[in-house]
Amino acid sequence: TQLLEQSPQFLSIQEGENLTVYCNSSSVFSSLQWYRQEPGEGPVLLVTVVTGGEVKKLKRLTFQFGDARKDSSLHITAAQPGDTGLYLCAAPTFTSGTYKYIFGTGTRLKVLA
Amino acid sequence: GAGVSQSPSNKVTEKGKDVELRCDPISGHTALYWYRQSLGQGLEFLIYFQGNSAPDKSGLPSDRFSAERTGGSVSTLTIQRTQQEDSAVYLCASSSFPRGKASYEQYFGPGTRLTVT
């Protein structure tokens, strides 16, 4: 069974602090995605990384795909209250002829003003 | 443009009753997914429709759960004889399925919050 473990599960920080969220697996993936979900809404895609070692930046968010394509990290610089939400990683799997995504366990972030 | 819509947004039902949850995907998207999310946790895959292919039902937790997709568009998730452990947010997502690409984006609806009392 392919699993995506995220850590930490919960994180509460003050505005302006930096943080890193991790997504780990024992499986190798062809790509990995990060989504953010706000209360009462569905997840929204932030980024897709496809190459081992790839680094992508989205304003204050930096995403990295591990060299072995088994793990990924999300680093937020100078967090703001608007960054509050549930962060989910997702990776594609191909089993029994079906190509679909599995999602990580999630990291719930709260940024205090 | 219109995104994925789901109805109802909230549903409270008594244990043992049947419920139907509806999903309207983005027009033209061939793939449709149902997920279950408990207590703001990660997403649990339920079922996947892709075009005219047979659906992947491998994530349905029991035979009380079923889903259909009519005309390749609207989908309905039905839960029969609901139990308290069925209480969760049910999310629907749709996507196009670009051949040759390593990944694709799923567009999610806002979800239906189901509470079984």
Descriptive overview:
The complex is a heterodimer of chains A (113) and B (117). By secondary structure, chain A is mainly beta. Chain A has a single domain (5-112), classed as Immunoglobulin-like (Sandwich), CATH 2.60.40. Chain A has no helices and 11 strands. In chain A, strand 9 and strand 10 form a beta hairpin. The mean pLDDT of chain A is 93. Chain B is mainly β and 117 residues long. Chain B has a domain at 15-92: Immunoglobulins (Immunoglobulin-like). Chain B has strands at 5-7, 10-13, 19-24, 31-37, 43-50, 65-69, 75-79, 88-95, 107-108, 112-116. In chain B, strands 2, 4, 5, 8, 9 and 10 form a 6-stranded mixed sheet that branches. The radius of gyration of chain B is 14 Å and the shape is globular. Chain B starts with a strand and ends with a strand. The interface between A and B is medium-sized, with 27 and 22 residues.
Helix content of chain A: under 10%
Query: How are helices and strands ordered from N to C of chain A?
Result: EEEEEEEEEEE
Largest sheet of chain A: 6 strands, mixed
Q: Classify the fold: give the CATH topology of chain A.
A: Immunoglobulin-like
Largest interface: A-B, 27 and 22 residues
Would you identify the regions of chain B where 5 or more consecutive residues have pLDDT less than 50?
none
Helix content of chain B: under 10%
- Quote the distance from N terminus to C terminus of chain A: 40 Å
Strand content of chain B: over 45%
The global form of chain B is globular
As a percent range, the share of strand residues of chain A is over 45%
Report the order of strands and helices of chain B.
EEEEEEEEEE
CATH class of the domain at 15-92 in chain B: Mainly Beta
